[in-house]
Structures are given as structure tokens and as C-alpha cells.
Amino acid sequence: MSVTILVGGQWGDEGKGKVIDLLADRVDMVVRSQGGSNAGHTVVAEGKEYKFHLIPSGVLNPSTVCVIGHGVVVNPKVFLEEVDNLHAEGVSTDNLFISERAHMVMPYHPELDRLGEVQRGDDRLGTTARGIGPAYEDKVRRIGFRIGDLQKPAFLEKKLRFVLRLKNEALTKLYDAEPFDEGAILDEYLGYAERLDPLIRDIYPMVRDAIAHDRKILLEGAQAIMLDIDLGTYPYVTSSAPTAAGACAGSGIAPSRVDKTIGVFKAYTTRVGYGPFPTELTDSLGERLREVGNEFGTTTGRARRVGWYDAAVARYAVETNGIDSIVLTKVDVLDEVPTLGICTGYMWRGEYWDHPMANISHLKHCDPVYEEMPGWMTSTRDCRSYDDLPPRCRAYIERLGELSGAPIDVVSIGPDRQHTVVRRDLL
Ligand code: IMP
């Protein structure tokens, strides 16, 4: 098994970071392939909590090569802060590299993100305000800055003059906001250049050689299918492709080289930001699950919206990503829920839909079709094997696997590495 992709199967925050951390010491290379510092993983290892936004959590294993692929938009300031925090904890970053082709989040991107949201008013998306959308916009518009540009100061300066004129025009004329200063940006980014220089690589030969030598590579996706720019609940999505296909594009690895795709799903559903969420629980049970599951964003601290497991979304995720194996997380959060709802599809104007509709207004107004199952009403935290789990918990897991269309091979029952029940090895 050489190339494995790991993706989120819902609206993000499924606990991918923990799974990557579990797998990292069994792979030679982890490549982050899309998104930016909008993502947030919290990993608990040996009682210590680590927060990651850009750096693959695989960095905790010193022998794993960690690569930020060209599909990622990198905010160098956030990246270097993360590096400094890791060093302060005694974690080495000697094996960490960034693709020369990865685009950078520039200082005007978060500001344009924020102002764009204000301009949308009631129709705002609820972005993380990290400048992700504006950075991808510039990439596609071919006025973005790549990490490799840091190694070409004269080019950087010339291009910044041109691009900043466009940006400042938008800021001052469209938004009545303050312009950015060219000299200040240049100084700031040339400062980053000095520190980033040793980490910048053309990752193509690295990845090619790793594949040629049959090294184990894990492609780490951020966000998830329902936030996909095409397949998600557009426009309430992120600006990249958090799918298995996106992982290939963002790392430069051909789909035919991929051996396995793992999907991470929470045992219920959460979503941050606005947009349709058919199984949302807006009652006291939703509030309780949010508290028990500590459903507050790692990146923004925002309260996450909480709802029942949506098997129609899960099936869609399994099929569009080609998921072979599911990791089901946060099962313990449901320990004290007497009756569990599972959405199997939707009714909209008398018609049954077995998948999330492309028309988000229909998705917003549909009625989820639910199956109910009895809860297990006992703690699962100390279970260490699948057979230790209460029978009703196992029945719930089995049913989710059946409805979602892929086997649930790993179950997570708490934040720590030891809170993990493996039914079948992932790699
Ligand atoms: P953006 O990616 O900051 O542009 O935000 C667009 C949408 O994606 C918003 O609804 C965000 O809350 C959501 N989003 C972005 N990154 C994540 C993530 O890592 N987890 C969950 N939601 C995210």
C-alpha cells in the first residue's frame, strides 16, 4: 500500500488530525494538499495538546517527511508561528518542506475576506476570515504570489507593485477601506523569505522518488466534501477541492497511483458557518451535544452547529471520493443520548432524494427522513476493542456503515491516541 488519501466526509472538523497523527508513524511522507490556515486540527499526544492549521500533524513523528503541497495557500506568518510553537515544545521541523508552487496568503487577503463578508450582509458565508477565498481567487486570476517568489526579491517587488495597485484600488474604491503599503509588505515577506528559504522545494522529484521507491505516502485533506467548491453546498463552501481528486491535484500524484481512500466521519454531524444543514438540531439536545463534544472551532472558536448523522451525505462522500474505509469519530459524545436519529434521505415536495441535492434551496427546505435507534447510555471511553463496546453502540456503528456504503474500520471514543478501537488496519 503506497499512496493513501484521507478526506473529511461531512462539513469538516471530523477529527482528521487525530487519524493522521495515528497513521503518521506508519508512513514515510505526509502531504497536505489543499486549504490553508482555515483548517484546524487539535491533536492530543501523550497528554499534550497540539493545534495545527497548516503543518501536517505528522510532524510529531520526527522520521516522517511532511510536505505542504502546491494546492495549499500558505500564510507565511501563521506557518512560522506554528513552527515556533512546535520548537518551543521540543518538536523538530527538520523534515518539513513547502512546495515552491504553493500560493501565499498576502496581508490584503484576510482584509478582503472580512470586507467581502460585510458586503454580503445577511447572505454572508461565515468564512474563517483567514483570506482563503481571496488567495485562491488571485491564484486563478494569475496574480497570486507563490512561495517560490520569495526566492526572487526583484520579481517579488515588481509584481507586488502591479498587484497591490489592483488591490488598493478595490480596497479604497469598493470598500472605502485603508490601502496597504508596498514597502511594509515587501519588508515583511522578505523577512519570511529568509526563514522559509531552507524549506522551499520543488516537490515533484521528492514525490516522484518516494513513489518510485514504494514509500508510504499519506495525502492529508483539510475541510470536507460538503465544503467542496463544486460538490458542496455552493456558495457556502470553501474555495478548494477537499476531495480525493483534489488531494491528487494538490500534491501532483496521479489518481492511478492511489491505493486507498479513507474517509473520516463524526458519529453525528457538525457544520461551522452558514448554509443548509438538513439534520441540524437547534434544540437543547443540540446544545448538549455541542457542550459534550466541545464543538467549538479550533481556528475561530465559533460554536459549531450540531445535528444527527446524515447517511445521505455520507454515501455521497463515499461515492464521490471513492472511500474504501471509514474512521468514525466522537462516538463517545453520544454515550448519554437515549434515542439516536440517522438521516437516510430527504423528502422535498413529495419526492424522495437519496443524496444531497445540488439545489441548495431545496436542501435547505427538505425534510430529512429518519431512522431511530436506541442509545447505549453508558460510557465507551474505556473500551479498547470493538467487542468491548456496548451492543447497542455496535449496532449503531454497523448501521451507519451499511447506510454509508463503506466499512467502519476504526472507531474513536475520545481525543487521545489510546481512545481508538481498530477493527481492521487502515494501512
Ligand atoms: P473559508 O474556507 O474560510 O473561506 O470558509 C468557507 C466555509 O468553510 C465557512 O463556512 C467555514 O466555516 C468553512 N470552513 C473552512 N475551513 C473549515 C474547517 O477546517 N472546518 C470546518 N469548516 C471550515
From TrEMBL:
NCBIfam families: PRK01117.1, purA. Keywords: Cytoplasm, GTP-binding, Ligase, Magnesium, Metal-binding, Nucleotide-binding, Purine biosynthesis. Its cofactor is Mg(2+). It comes from Candidatus Aeolococcus gillhamiae. This is Adenylosuccinate synthetase. GTP binds at residues 12-18, 40-42, 304, 330-332, 412-414. Belongs to the adenylosuccinate synthetase family. Mg(2+) binds at D13, G40. It catalyses: IMP + L-aspartate + GTP = N(6)-(1,2-dicarboxyethyl)-AMP + GDP + phosphate + 2 H(+). One of its GO terms (biological process) is 'de novo' AMP biosynthetic process. Pathway: Purine metabolism; AMP biosynthesis via de novo pathway; AMP from IMP: step 1/2. It comes from the Bacteria. IMP binds at D13, E14, G15, K16, N38, A39, G40, H41, T128, R142, Q223, T238, R302. GO terms for cellular component: cytoplasm. The lineage of its organism: Bacteria, Bacillati, Candidatus Dormiibacterota, Candidatus Dormibacteria, Candidatus Aeolococcales.
